[in-house]
Amino acid sequence: MTGFEFVFGTFSVVLGLAIVEILRGFGRGIKRPGPKRIGWLSPMLGLFLLYDIATFWASAWTARAVVPVTTPAIALGMLITGLYFFAATQLWPEPEDSDGWADGNGWMLAHKRRILFSIFACNALSVAATMRFVPGSWPVASTEAWMLALYFALLLAIAFVRGTRATTLVLALAILEYAADLVMHLPA
Predict the structure, then answer these.
(1) CA angle 9, 13, 16 (to 5 degrees)
(2) Which of 24, 71, 85, 128 has its CA 20 to 30 A from that of 60?
(3) pLDDT tens-digit profile of 75-115?
(4) First-to-last CA distance in the chain?
C-alpha cells in the first residue's frame, strides 16, 4: 500500500460517512411517522451533493501520482472531507425536529447557505490544490474551466436567491450542469 492509498483510505471513510448521512436523512424523512412535507429542495441538494462528493473522490484518485503525502496535503484533505461531512449533516432536519420535517422546503431555505458555502469551499480548495500540484491543468480557454466558472456561479446563485421556486430553478440548473459534465466525461 502506498502512502497515498493509506491517506486516501482514511478520507474515503469520511466521504463514505457523508454519503451515509445524506441517504440516512432521506430515509428518515420518508419513514418518519406523522405530518411531513419533505419538499424538493433537500432531495435535490442531496443529489447534487452526492455527485459533488463523487467528483471530488474521482479527482483525488486521479491526482494520486502528483499529490505528495505531506502534513499540509493531509491537513487540506481533512479540511475538504470534513467540510463535505459538515454539509451532509446540515442537509436534513434532526429526527426530533417536527417543525423542520413539517416544511422541508422552508427548513432548507433557512439552512442552505451553510451547506452551499461548505461545498463552495471544498471545490475552491480542490481547484487551488489542483492548480498547485498539476501546473497547466486549468487553461482559461478550456471547456472545463468555463464549466467550473459556471459551477461556482450556480453555487453562489443557489445560496443567495430567495424563495422556493427560484432556489429550485437554480438548483435544477446546477444538476443539469453536472449531468452535462457527466455526459462529457463518459468513456468513448
Answers:
(1) 125
(2) 24
(3) 999 999 999 999 999 999 887 777 777 888 998 999 999 99
(4) 31
Residue 15 in grid coordinates: 466521504
Question: What pLDDT, in 10s, does the model give residues 23-53?
Answer: 999 998 888 777 678 899 999 999 999 999 9
Q: Which alpha helices (H) appear in the chain, and where do they start and end?
A: 3-31, 41-62, 71-89, 98-102, 104-133, 143-160, 164-184
Residue 28 Cα distances to 25, 31, 38, 86, 179, angstroms: 5, 5, 10, 18, 27
Could you tell me the three cell numbers for 6?
493509506
Contacts of 180 by beta carbon, 8 Å cutoff, 6+ apart = 147
Q: Is 111 left (phi over 0), alpha (psi -120 to 50) or beta?
A: alpha
User: Which among 96, 99, 77 is positioned nearest to 13, based on CA atoms?
Assistant: 77
pLDDT at 58: 87
